[in-house]
Amino acid sequence: MEVVYGPVPSWRLGRSLGVDPQGGWTKRCSFDCLYCSSGPTAEKTVERRVSVFPERVERELREALREVEADVITFCGLGEPTLAGNLGELIGVARRVSDLPVAVLTNSSLMGSGEVRGELALADLVKGKLDAEGEGRFREINRPHPSLRWEGVVEGMREFRREFGGEFAVEVMVIPQNLEACGRIAEVIRTIGPDEVQVNTPLRPSPVRPLRREELEGVLGSFEGMRFRWVYGEEKPEVGRRVGFRRLRLLKRTGEP
Q: For domain 4-251, which CATH number applies: 3.30.429.10, 3.20.20.70, 3.50.50.60, 3.40.30.10?
């Protein structure tokens, strides 16, 4: 198995069976986030292309689901999943193979594209993210492709929320560099109107130190009035047998996606 991996125990999703729709062995992403546990972005791009064919995903999913138990099929992996030019087709494969709900974990960077929003809308749950309250901190923390602008990303998230009939969550990865901005980030998220906010900090190996429980707890008041969960307040499920160990090691996903 090289595209399908897990399940991994997720505090957000339960037993999450991952599908990497890019399937490569180097990180291809539209961001190069300070905190990313996958390391530096080898190819920073906004160009979508097909790297993994549906026949392969179908074969690996069928094999995996005969061997493991999962609660959800999650498209994520090494880099940004919406860079897969056939993401919608691959989501369709997951739906054909299994009755499990389908999730996509995205950095929200390409939501300004109607084509991308249409493909994401085929999922049951989409998790986007917002780590900055403006252009400056966006450049500092997410280090995006030069063509991307903070306001464009936020407007794409608003548009997706208006169109999407499934569950839309927004993650905030809180690190020392944006800790004092959480109140302003929360105000932007209110204008997006997600179903849930996920307050996180990088507990997997990361170049940036995670916030301690008491530090993260101190910002939760910023999200008052919105449905939210936070990483220290949730339990991860236990998982048994797994598949895709090479990719699990590459992604450092012994925890959750």
A: 3.20.20.70
Q: In whole angstroms, what separates CA 256 from the centre of its chain?
A: 11
Residue type, 33: C
By the 8 A CB rule, do 78 and 24 touch? Answer: yes
| Other C-beta atoms lying within 10 Å of the C-beta of residue 165 | 7
Tokens of 1: 């198995």
CA neighbor of 98 nearest in space, from 63, 125, 56, 139: 63
| Residues 66, 119: Cα–Cα separation, whole Å | 27
Instruction: Say if residue 189 is exposed, middle or buried (CB neighbours under 10 Å; 0-12, 13-18, 19+).
Output: buried
Q: What is d(CA 120, CA 82) in angstroms, rounded to the nearest whole number?
A: 8
User: Taking each helix axis from N to C terminus, what angle separates 54-67 and 87-97, rounded to the nearest 10 degrees?
Assistant: 30
Token pair recorded at residue 228: 């939210």
Helical H segments across the chain, by residue range: 54-67, 87-97, 114-120, 135-141, 150-163, 182-192, 213-217, 245-251
**pLDDT over 50 at 256, yes or no:** no
Can you give the pTM of this predicted structure?
0.95
Instruction: Please name every residue paired with 125 in a beta bridge, in sequence order, or none if there are none.
Output: 103, 167
Domain ranges of the chain: 4-251
For the chain, the C-alpha Rg in angstroms (whole number) is 17
pLDDT digits (tens, 9 = 90+) for 44-79: 999 999 999 999 999 999 999 999 999 999 999 999
SS3 112: coil
